[in-house]
């Protein structure tokens, strides 16, 4: 079985989507340190006309054993949101329980990292090299298919140095320099190579140059796809079944937006959805990234109040404002967004995703929504782990990085990195 370890859930979902689109059997699991779920009560799930329950009471997801047979297991950690030392320790903890790594690099291992240079990359690669016995690591964060390249040691996004883009405002990993060497001054001393890469052919050349059985490969989605294409090991196929596209009619939300679902969406009442005020919500969209811009799709928007954003008011104030906004409103969907950008730093980032997780927990209560769409990896991890949702089955890749998957409780979860486009997700008929 192939293994990919990603430092956030949207990165994990992006790789899972690539593999799924190629016919692979894919499992995605969230792994993280102990944390209490938002709700200690079971979360109902719709199953063939009835309700089943899945417990949200465990404080820590069991570590995977590596599975048997072929396919791909994608492990989403939260190491991007940790300190460098915490990320190193957590990566080692996970590696020691993965059977595909027990023989070094015999089974295909890939370390997925952010294509905008965020994260504790050097610390995690050091841990993986120690766990696998790799002599060196080749890290290629470039994504040429998205205009993200490394040229003469400088990282560009759409021909603009990364330090001149919105990533300079990132709360945890602001791009204050575009030089990869300056951004990661300890990489070379730890046996980590970061070659230039401007095209897909460059990625293939890098792989052929360094693929000696003793090298750990890491980077963005394009490099994984090249690595996968050149891997000679036969990969078991997974037949993709067509799934109906849900649609809401008769005055309710029409969401024929490539939102594949294996079960019809309920029409309201006590058949499903989650309640806000006096109405049921079937779709909740969270814009939780500093790169987020709420899509103009005719769904009511609730912005995080300035006082809550600044930490001067509790998350419950926003929750009450949402309930007041929804009182008497006939829409069954809602967008939550963060319109402010003046705070930076780790404490601010943790605060924002914690607020979003608390508000979502208050909205969902004890019922699973039909659909939950989350933009931004750190927000997605905070929300899903707080709800106790850790195991997912891939159902569809909408666009590169935009992936849909079914949670154990039955909710269709769509994930998207904050800096990626929505693809065809919101196309309506």
What's the helix and strand layout?
Elements (H helix, E strand, L loop, with lengths): L1 E5 L2 H13 L4 E5 L12 E5 L2 E5 L17 E5 L7 H12 L13 E4 L8 H12 L3 E5 L7 E4 L2 E4 L2 E2 L18 H4 L8 E2 L6 H11 L4 E5 L1 H10 L43 E3 L2 E3 L1 E5 L13 E3 L2 H5 L4 H12 L6 E5 L8 H19 L6 E5 L1 H11 L3 E9 L2 E6 L4 E5 L13
Parallel strand pairs: 1-5, 1-6, 2-5, 6-12, 7-11, 7-12, 15-17, 15-18, 16-17, 18-21
Antiparallel strand pairs: 2-19, 3-4, 8-9, 9-10, 13-14, 19-20, 20-21
Written account of the structure:
- The chain has a 14-stranded mixed beta sheet, sandwiched between helices. A three-stranded antiparallel beta sheet has the order 8-9-10, with no helix packed on it.
- It contains ten helices and 21 strands.
- It has helices at residues 9-21, 84-95, 121-132, 180-183, 200-210, 221-230, 306-310, 315-326, 346-364, 377-387, and strands at residues 2-6, 26-30, 43-47, 50-54, 72-76, 109-112, 136-140, 148-151, 154-157, 160-161, 192-193, 215-219, 274-276, 279-281, 283-287, 301-303, 333-337, 371-375, 391-399, 402-407, 412-416.
- It has 429 residues and is an alpha/beta fold.
- Strand 3 and strand 4 (50-54) form a beta hairpin.
- The longest helix is centred in the last third of the chain and has 19 residues, at 346-364.
Beta-strand segment tally: 21
The portion of residues forming beta strands comes to 15-25%
Structural class: alpha/beta
Q: Give the N-to-C terminal Cα separation.
A: 40 Å
- Please give the share of residues in helix: 25-40%
Q: Strand sequence of the main sheet, in spatial order?
A: 11-7-12-6-1-5-2-19-20-21-18-15-17-16
Q: Radius of gyration over alpha carbons?
A: 21 Å
Shape: globular
Mean pLDDT across all amino acids = 77
Low-confidence stretches: 34-69, 232-280
Largest sheet: 14 strands, mixed
The total of helices stands at 10
């Amino acid at each position: 079985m192939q293994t990919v370890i990603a430092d956030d859930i949207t990165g994990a979902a992006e790789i899972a989507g690539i593999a799924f689109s190629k016919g692979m059997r894919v499992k995605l699991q969230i792994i993280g340190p102990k944390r209490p779920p938002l709700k200690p009560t079971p979360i109902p799930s719709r199953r063939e006309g009835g309700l089943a329950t899945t417990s949200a009471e465990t404080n820590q997801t069991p570590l995977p054993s590596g599975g048997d047979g072929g396919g791909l297991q994608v492990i989403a950690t939260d190491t991007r949101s940790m300190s460098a030392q915490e990320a190193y320790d957590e990566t080692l903890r996970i590696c020691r329980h993965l059977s595909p790594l027990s023989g070094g690099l015999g089974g295909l291992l890939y370390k997925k990292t952010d294509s905008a240079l965020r994260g504790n990359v050097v610390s995690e690669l050091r841990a993986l090299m120690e766990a696998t016995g790799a002599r060196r690591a080749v890290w290629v964060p470039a994504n040429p298919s998205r205009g993200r390249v490394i040229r003469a040691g400088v990282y560009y996004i759409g021909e603009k140095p990364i330090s001149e883009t919105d990533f300079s405002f990132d709360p945890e990993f602001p791009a204050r320099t575009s030089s990869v060497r300056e951004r990661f001054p300890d990489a070379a001393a730890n046996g980590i190579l970061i070659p230039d890469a401007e095209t897909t052919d460059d990625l293939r050349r890098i792989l052929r140059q360094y693929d000696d059985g003793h090298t750990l490969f890491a980077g963005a989605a394009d490099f994984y796809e090249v690595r996968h294409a050149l891997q000679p090991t036969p990969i078991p196929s997974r037949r993709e079944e067509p799934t109906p596209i849900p649609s809401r009619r008769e005055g309710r939300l029409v969401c024929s937006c490539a939102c594949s679902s294996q079960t019809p969406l309920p029409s309201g009442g006590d058949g499903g959805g989650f309640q806000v005020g006096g109405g049921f919500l079937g779709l909740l969209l969270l814009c939780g990234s500093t790169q987020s811009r709420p899509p103009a799709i005719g769904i009511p928007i609730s912005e995080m109040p300035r006082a809550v954003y600044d930490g001067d008011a509790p998350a419950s104030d926003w929750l009450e404002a949402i309930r007041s906004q929804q009182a008497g409103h006939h829409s069954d969907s809602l967008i939550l967004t963060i319109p402010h950008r003046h705070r930076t730093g780790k404490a601010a980032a943790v605060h924002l995703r914690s607020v979003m997780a608390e508000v979502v927990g208050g909205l969902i209560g004890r019922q699973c929504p039909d659909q939950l769409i989350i933009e931004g990896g750190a927000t997605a991890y905070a929300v899903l782990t707080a709800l106790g949702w850790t195991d997912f089955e891939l159902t569809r890749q909408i666009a590169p990085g935009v992936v849909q998957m079914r949670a154990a409780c039955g909710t269709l979860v769509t994930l998207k990195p904050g800096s990626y486009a929505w693809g065809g997700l919101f196309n309506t008929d």
